[in-house]
Amino acid sequence: FELWMGRSSLFVLNICLFCTCAASPPNFVLLFADDLGFGDLGSYGHPSSLTPNLDRLAAEGLRFTDFYCTSPVCSPSRASLLTGRYQTRSGIYPGVLYPGSIGGLPLNETTIAEVLKPLGYATAAIGKWHLGFGDKGMFLPTKQGFDHFLGIPYSHDMGPCWNLTCFPPDVKCFGTCDLGTVTVPLMQNEVIKQQPVNFLKLEEAYSDFATNFITTSANKKQPFFLYYPSHHTHYPQYAGLGAAGKSLRGPYGDALLEFDNTVGNLLKTLEKTGVIKNTLVFFTSDNGPELMRMSRGGNSGCLKCGKGTTYEGGMREPAIAYWPGTIKPGVTHELASTLDILPTIAGLAGAQLPKVMLDGVDMTEILVNQGKSKRETMIFYPTDPSEMYGLFALRLGKYKAHFYTRGATHSSTTPDSDCSVFAVLKPHDPPLIFDLEADPSENYPLTLKGKPDLQNLLEKIKNVKNQFEASMVFGESQISKGTNPNLAPCCNPQCSPKPSCCHC
Ligand SMILES: *[C@@H]1O[C@H](CO)[C@@H](O)[C@H](O)[C@H]1NC(C)=O
Ligand SMILES: *[C@@H]1O[C@H](CO)[C@@H](O)[C@H](O)[C@H]1NC(C)=O
User: Fold this and answer.
1) Is the terminal CB of the chain with fewer CB neighbours within 10 Å at N or C?
2) Is the confidence at residue 3, as pLDDT, over 90?
3) Mean pLDDT of the region 272-286
4) Fold of 393-476
5) CA distance 63 to 333
6) From the CB of residue 18, how many other CB atoms can be counted at a distance below 10 Å?
7) Quick check: helix, strand or coil at residue 116?
């Protein structure tokens, strides 16, 4: 059937998946790392990371070199991943949500889980949500199309981090976590299962829950969508017993190894239950590495700066698509984004697209035929997008134009002074333009003067920018609604004094 299946016969492919696999649409496993940079995986060139399972996905699947998230920080990036829309539309800006945040991902946004539900998919979110908790948990995953949720509603440093930053042989602890808020809860669906969460057993709980979910769905022959946004490798980097001290790279390496072990468990489960050939596994990360953690933070490889910035290191991410029998091993240099995951999943499952303005495009052609991307442009919004400034940078084909640059606290401490928090907002007119294929590190801006070709390029970039900005309707900011400490998850809601009494 490969012979007569033309390059563009994706429709035919869909039909065949249905008829050869007894009317079973594909399963989806979406693995999402946290603050993991372009240079952090063994398969992306890190010399001391131990990521055998992710590396196996890369070797036997399709590895992207030009894949982007939509924001250099957590919550907005996650909103785009799950909705296929820039965060400016859904209102998940500026910055991130906190325990007690009043807002969250608006319930009228359609997530990947909600796209798949009408087709009878079982859906689960396991790990770090970070798209809101709200009044009585009104923004939890179970309100956004997920049948099951096991996880932490926000980042695991948004509460005391006990001794997680203290690692032998260093006696000194490295950094602190947020104080003055509730201890970090582990939720199951809408109920607090543990507060504080047992950090050292957390990965095991996730791995077991995910294994059960896959096994149960496969046994019932129900198609499934597993979304696993891990708390690894966000600060504080640590690992439970299975991985602590086992990497060559210290706490960051241990956290990554612990995540990788779970990836291995999930792959084994997919094999054992016989669904691996009918499952698309996709891996990427929410934003670039938090370089301010120095040798305990992630690594953006050859890319400039990291988390918090709109340089490549803040937003270009490793990405791997694995689907034995359907995706051939290889590397693609096509432009793609987390925005494209929703339309791709919808296309592969035969689901209806949400009737909203989508920013994603279907990338099935890249996955299945190593074909061309439908995406020509990538927009770089800062952590605090506004209509006044608009986008900070824009990639068109191999060129990237910076209209504004700025460093970030999250990327401070590197020798490159452009990354530091002291590199204040700088407008560029004409924009700084880089050829990312020749200069992925954004070291050498092109000289436009006296070069008619580049003048034409500049005009084209400006047109694309104007067109994009004319199409952008900013949603009401959910994060500017602020916080109310009484909304923070508490296992003992009537207790006092808060937050310390929220301890069960
Ligand atoms: C959701 O509701 C808000 C408030 O009514 C509205 O502004 C927004 O456009 C809606 N979003 C979608 C995706 O329908
Ligand atoms: C933190 O303390 C607990 C309990 O004392 C201990 O079991 C654990 O190994 C410690 N973790 C680290 C990372 O030092």
Assistant:
1) N
2) no
3) 98
4) Arylsulfatase, C-terminal domain (3.30.1120)
5) 9
6) 14
7) helix
Number of Cβ atoms within 10 Å of the Cβ of 274: 9
Of 69, 74, 305, 491, the active-site residue reads 74
Q: Is residue 166 annotated as part of the catalytic site, yes or no?
A: no
As a whole number of angstroms, the distance between CA 258 and CA 49 comes to 11
pLDDT digits (tens, 9 = 90+) for 204-215: 999 999 999 999
Q: pLDDT band for 19, please (50, 70, 90 cuts).
A: very low
pLDDT at 1 over 50: no
| Alpha-helical runs (H) found in 71-187 | 74-83, 87-90, 112-116
Say whether pLDDT at 6 is over 60: no
Q: Name the nearest CA neighbour of 337 among 371, 362, 370, 301.
A: 362
CA distances from 408 to 61, 295, 405, 431 (A): 34, 17, 10, 20
- Delimit the domains of the chain by residue range: 25-375, 393-476
CA gap 28, 223 in Å, rounded:
8
Ligand approaching nearest to the C-alpha of 163: 2
Are 313 and 436 within 8 A, CB to CB? no
The predicted pLDDT at position 170 comes to: 59
Contacts of 254 (CB under 8 A, 6+ apart): 237, 238, 239, 243, 244, 245, 246, 247
Residue 71 in this model has a pLDDT that exceeds 90:
yes
Residue 11: per-residue pLDDT? 47
Look at the pTM and tell me if it is higher than 0.90: yes
Distance from C-alpha of 20 to C-alpha of 325, rounded to nearest angstrom? 13
Q: Would residue 74 show up in a list of annotated catalytic residues for this protein?
A: yes
Kindly state the helix (H) or strand (E) to which residue 57 belongs, with its residue range. helix 52-60
Q: Could you give the 3-state DSSP secondary structure of residue 297?
A: coil
| Residue appearing with tokens 């994060």 | 479
Tell how far the Cα of 407 is from the centroid of ligand 2, in angstroms. Answer: 35
Q: What is the mean pLDDT of the chain?
A: 94
pLDDT in tens, 290-304: 999 999 999 999 999
Measuring from atom 10 of ligand 2, which residue has the nearest CA? Answer: 163
**Do 393-476 and 25-375 have the same topology in CATH?**
no
Protein residues whose CB sits closer than 6 Å to any atom of ligand 2: 163-164, 166-167, 238
Sign of CA dihedral 352, 354, 357, 361: negative
Residue 90 CA: distances (Å) to CA of 17, 84, 97, 503:
34, 10, 13, 33
